[in-house]
Request: fold
Amino acid sequence: MKQKIILLSFLVLSLAACRKDNKIDGPSIAEIYSNFKLLDPFKASKDSVDFKTSETVFFSASFNKIVTWEISIEGQTSKAKKIISGQSRIIALNNALWNGSTTNFPMFKAEKCIATLKIADVADSFMVNVNVKNPKVNDGFIIADFETGLKTSWTKFFQSGANMDCKVKTDNLAPEGGSYLNMAGTVNWDYLIGLVDFPASAYNSAVTFPLNTNPDAVYFNCLIYGTSSANPSLVLFQFKEDENSDGTFSASNEDEYDYQITVDWEGWKLISIKYSDIVTLVNGNPATPKGNGLHNPNKLSKISMLHLANPNNGFASTKLDYLMFSNNKPLEP
Reply:
């Protein structure tokens, strides 16, 4: 008798489990094939936002069924774009918040923006205006934004090759602010097109940059523009640490970490890397550091940027802007 009761209980539990497992999740067939309806209109939580003071704005709408949607926010002056997308019945704070960041460069300015909502397989689109009083301010230490040109406190060297165009330009192509560093030319006898050294002394009286002691909390960021995937340029950043704090970097017994980037894309791209992930390179290959082998961002005394091209090709072209360190996470422009 006892065994029959146990067996009966087991069967009841099994049936209950089967009913739970066979429960249909997601929309019904009727909902899938129903015509799209906008239940609540597309709108912004505010018509004007000051991102400089950490204000945010979110968008909202609701539908009669789950849809795939995309909100494209475009600055009417800068032509900057922010894309927010999802799949849901409701658009709200939890899935459509905008903090002033950018998806497609340039970055936003103080300007009128138009947010456009598009629904997959729906012909109609919906629009709302948002006025940006002040753009988002990015926290971190800015190494170079080139807004005042090439500073005299930086060391510069540009080759005298053919069609050299290594200078700061100010035009609508700038991804941040109004200026950027253009690096282009043909050098068929050397890898180097040009270089810029950014010493810590150019920013303050200290011999090192004011960075966190924790290499996992420091991120290096840069905006780089590529012009050709067929003939890529190389950008090499060298991070030189003054481990004994004597005011100079010694290549023979102090650490240098290197980050080499093959610029094989077209347009502006954000490059971010955690300081602790940067390795020492010799001729492009990983090598052993010459110093204590520890990443010490607080002992960083100089950053060198080298623009390189294979002399077999000769020509290289790259643009750079907004070199900066951010804290605890990569830059969100």
In short: Confidence is low (pLDDT under 50) at residues 1-21.
